[in-house]
C-alpha cells in the first residue's frame, strides 16, 4: 500500500471516529460552548460579513469555480478538465446522502441569519465538503504545473475561510466541518485516482496497438 493510500485509510478511520464521537453529549456540549464563545465576540456587522463570505462556499459558486477550471484546462488536458467538475459534483451528491444517513441535527443555539436550514442535516458539513472538494480537485488538476503551490495555499485559505463563517453563523459544529473536509478530500481523491488509472490503461492499450502495427 502506498503512503498516499495509507493516508486515505487513516482519514477514513478518523472520519468514522468523528461520527462515533458526536454521539456523546459531552462532545456536543464542548462544541456548543465553543460556538457560543465565538458568537459572544460577534456583532451585526460581523454576522453580515460572514453571511456574505459564506456564500462562496455554496453549491452554485463551487460549481461555477469547477466549471471555470475545466474551461481553462480543456485545451491542454481534456481528461483533467472533465474530472474537476465531475468529482466535485459526485462529492456534493454523496455529502447529501451521508447527511441523510447520519441524521445529525444542526446547532440551535441562537437565531441565525441563514435561511431556514433545519431540514438539512448537519454532519458532515456541506459547505466544508464542497470547499474541500473543489480545492482538492483544482490542486490535483494543477499538480504538474507551476501553479501547484499557489493552488495549495489558495485552497487551504478558501477552506478555512468558509469554515470560519459557518462557525460564526452557528450553523455547524466544529466536527461537522472536520468531517466535511475529510469526506470531500477522500471522495475527490478516489475519483481522481480512478480517472488516472483509466487514463493509464488507455495509454497502455494505445502503445500496444502502435507496437503491433
Protein traits:
213 residues, mainly alpha
Domains counted in the coordinates: how many?
1
Q: How far is the first residue's CA from the last residue's CA?
A: 36 Å
Radius of gyration: 19 Å
| Helical stretch tally | 8
Strand/helix succession? HHHHHHHH
Number of strand elements: 0
Structural class: mainly alpha
User: Kindly state the mean pLDDT as a whole number?
Assistant: 85
Share of residues in helices: over 70%
Residue share in β-strands? under 5%
Largest sheet properties:
none
Low-confidence stretches: none
The 3D shape can be described as globular
What does this structure look like?
This protein is mostly helical and 213 residues long. It has one domain. It has 8 helices and no strands. Helix 1 (3-21) runs antiparallel to helix 8 (174-212) and helix 6 (126-141) packs antiparallel against helix 7 (148-168). The longest helix is centred in the last third of the chain and has 39 residues, at 174-212. The mean pLDDT is 85.
Question: What is the topology?
Answer:
Elements: H1 3-21, H2 25-40, H3 44-54, H4 59-73, H5 78-102, H6 126-141, H7 148-168, H8 174-212
Helix pairs in contact: 1-8, 3-7, 4-5, 4-6, 5-6, 5-8, 6-7, 6-8
Structure described in brief:
By secondary structure, this protein is mainly alpha-helical. The chain contains eight helices and no strands.
Amino acid at each position: 500500500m502506498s503512503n498516499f493510500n495509507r493516508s486515505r485509510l487513516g482519514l477514513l478511520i478518523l472520519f468514522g471516529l468523528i461520527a462515533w464521537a458526536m454521539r456523546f453529549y459531552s462532545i456536543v456540549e464542548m462544541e456548543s460552548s465553543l460556538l457560543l464563545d465565538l458568537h459572544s465576540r460577534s456583532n451585526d456587522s460581523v454576522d453580515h460579513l460572514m453571511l456574505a463570505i459564506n456564500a462562496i462556499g455554496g453549491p452554485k459558486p463551487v460549481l461555477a469555480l469547477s466549471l471555470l477550471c475545466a474551461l481553462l484546462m480543456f485545451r491542454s488536458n481534456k481528461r483533467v478538465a472533465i474530472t474537476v467538475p465531475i468529482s466535485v459534483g459526485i462529492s456534493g451528491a454523496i455529502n447529501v446522502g451521508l447527511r441523510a444517513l447520519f441524521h445529525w441535527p444542526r446547532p440551535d443555539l441562537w437565531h441565525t441569519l441563514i435561511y431556514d436550514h433545519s431540514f438539512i442535516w448537519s454532519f458532515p458539513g456541506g459547505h466544508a465538503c464542497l470547499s474541500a472538494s473543489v480545492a482538492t480537485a483544482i490542486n490535483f488538476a494543477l499538480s504538474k504545473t507551476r501553479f501547484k503551490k499557489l493552488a495549495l495555499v489558495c485552497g487551504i485559505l478558501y477552506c478555512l475561510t468558509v469554515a470560519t463563517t459557518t462557525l460564526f453563523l452557528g450553523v455547524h459544529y466544529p466536527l461537522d466541518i472536520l468531517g466535511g473536509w475529510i469526506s470531500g478530500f477522500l471522495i475527490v481523491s478516489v475519483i481522481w485516482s480512478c480517472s488516472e488509472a483509466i487514463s493509464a490503461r488507455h495509454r497502455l492499450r494505445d502503445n500496444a496497438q502502435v507496437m503491433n502495427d
